Amino acid sequence: MRPAERGPAGQGARARGGSPPGRTGAFSPGAFSPGAFAAAVVAGAVADAVFADPARFHPVAGYGRAAHAAERLLYADSRLAGVGFVAVTVGGPVLAAAVLDRALPRPARPVALAVALWAALGGTSLRREAAVMSRLLTAGDLPGGRARLGHLCGRDPSGLDEPELARAAIESVAENTADAVLGPLVWGAVLGLPGVVGYRAVNTLDAMVGHRSPRYLRFGWAAARLDDLANLLPARLCAVLTALAAPVVGGSPRAAWQVWRRDGYSHPSPNAGQCEAAFAGALGITLGGTNVYEGEVEKRGRLGDGPPPRGADVARSGDLLAAVAAAGVAVSALAGAALTGAPRRGRNGRSGHSGHSGHNSTGGLGGGHRWGGQRGRRGRSGA
């Protein structure tokens, strides 16, 4: 029995139907202190900056293999089968993360959250890919750029010139600033460990089966729609932070904001266009146009007012990504810390205090993918 559960205070909490002192629920704020939560977010981001994606044994790659196995068992050409597939491959990991988060000792929970964020974040590897593409294009190595584009997106690179290769790379960087950076940070702040795990599972499934191909048009519908829902907030946060960070790359916050508000919906995706339009405005370039994916032609609206992008602009997009990521870490740490510090209201309508003990009774914070290998195949709205 935990010390906080002994004596009249713990018994009183049970009698009122609340959580006993020192115990926490799986999806409520309060699994650890505000300072510990903020430290976990920062530690996860620092781990991504230092270690990036491991070449082997990546947790998200392991999840992808398990999801492929589940697809082989559950596939049928129907939306209902796709809903079942998502329920198993998202619900299972989320439930496991919630159970683990609740079972861990309180001091270990921030460590688990930091590790999950490291596995879910992909900003460092994404920026490195942008730098490689920029060097190839500025050196005039178009064959090298075409060969490298598959590391960023699933667009057909054959015949693309420097501006088109640069556009494909920048659009992928912009979209994945939300997918691979802000998404895990936002859902980690809201739901802790299960939020990070669940978001990464949803985003990975969208990259795997959220296609408009004949095989996945119906089966992948649920994964694609759930990914759209999960990215509504991260994509718009990305646009706002991109506008604020525009001076880092010599851009204007006002121009980035105006382009985002004007052109953000000139895109087949309800989310990717928000990020891409803001990036176009901040970088002072034009994005959008005609793309080809596995022989399928897709026309997108014009985003921005500037000239077509060049190789050097790809590196600038990487710098913008880094600035947005840093701001996102700060937002996540502060928002999550505020949520963990907020008193939970008990069934009696008052803030959740535990009997006469003086302790605050709080619930527990429910507390890969990666854009690279997983995003190499185009989702319904991917770059």
Structural write-up:
The protein has 383 residues and is mostly helical. The chain has one domain. Helices cover 61% and strands 2% of the residues. It contains 14 helices and 2 strands. A two-stranded antiparallel sheet has the order 1-2. Helix 6 packs antiparallel against helix 7. 54% of the residues are buried.
**Radius of gyration based on Cα positions:** 22 Å
For the terminal residues, how far apart are their CA atoms? 53 Å
Beta-strand content estimate = under 5%
How many strand segments?
2
Outline the secondary-structure elements.
Elements: H1 7-15, H2 34-51, H3 59-74, H4 79-103, H5 109-120, H6 123-138, H7 142-148, H8 162-209, H9 221-230, H10 232-245, H11 253-263, H12 272-283, E1 290-293, E2 296-299, H13 311-341, H14 370-375
Antiparallel strand pairs: 1-2
Helix pairs in contact: 2-5, 2-13, 3-4, 3-8, 4-8, 5-8, 6-7, 6-8, 6-13, 8-9, 8-10, 8-12, 8-13, 10-11, 10-12, 10-13, 11-12
Key traits:
about 375 residues; mainly alpha; 14 helices; disordered C terminus
In short:
The protein is mostly helical.
